[in-house]
Each structure stands twice: as structure tokens, then as C-alpha cells.
Design goal:
By secondary structure, this protein is mainly α. It has four helices and no strands.
Length: about 120
């Protein structure tokens, strides 16, 4: 007569096994995570553009101020360069808005498809 040994995991052990197993399974993105990532990518490009444009404009404004304050003979050039830097800083928000709007148009079909899939599966 052959004896068999059967052992069943408890619920707590089963959860621990599942946690460990999930670490080693290939990562699959569900639709909700993909939707959130797409939404974040839209504003990320606009923010990056705004930060770069702000830094460059602030540096241009600083150069204009240096021309005015350090080298008095370059006062008129310094005023023009400073005005150019101020204009760049003023234009940051409209450029940000335009980039975000363009990215929303580009990503809209994917967002709509994913959101429709999610909403229809929930109902």
C-alpha cells in the first residue's frame, strides 16, 4: 500500500506565494495603467518645453541686465536683449498650452479607445 502525502497551503501562505510569483512574471500593463501613462505623457512634454524655454529666456534676460549694469556703453543693446528675454518669459505659458493641445489631439484616439474599453468592461 502506497502512502501519499498531501499538503495544502493556508490562505496567508497562498498570498505570499502569489506576491513572489508576480515579481517573476512578465510585466503586462493593464488598460487603466496605460490610460494613466498616456494622460501623463501629454502634460510631460509641455512641462519640459516650458522649463527649457523659461531657462533660456531667463538667461537671455540676465545677459541683457549684465550689459546694462556692467558695461554702460552697451546700454541700448542690453535693453533690447533684456526685452527679448522678457518676451520669451511671457510666451512660456502660451507655448505650453499649444504643446499640450497638440499632444492631446495626437493621443486622443488612443485615450478614447482605452477609455471605451474600460467603461464597457465595467458595466
Amino acid at each position: 500500500m502506497e502512502e501519499k502525502f498531501n499538503y495544502e497551503y493556508s490562505a496567508k501562505q497562498q498570498q505570499e506565494v502569489e506576491k513572489i510569483r508576480e515579481k517573476y512574471m512578465p510585466e503586462s500593463r493593464d488598460k487603466m495603467k496605460e490610460l494613466i501613462a498616456l494622460d501623463r505623457s501629454v502634460s510631460r512634454k509641455g512641462r519640459i518645453t516650458a522649463v527649457i524655454m523659461s531657462l533660456i529666456s531667463a538667461l537671455i534676460l540676465g545677459v541683457g541686465m549684465c550689459l546694462c549694469l556692467v558695461w554702460k556703453e552697451y546700454m541700448t543693446i542690453g535693453i533690447a536683449v533684456g526685452a527679448l528675454g522678457i518676451a520669451g518669459l511671457v510666451a512660456v505659458y502660451p507655448v505650453y498650452s499649444r504643446v499640450v493641445k497638440r499632444m492631446r489631439k495626437k493621443v486622443a484616439p488612443q485615450i478614447m479607445r482605452l477609455s471605451d474599453d474600460i467603461m464597457h468592461n465595467v458595466k
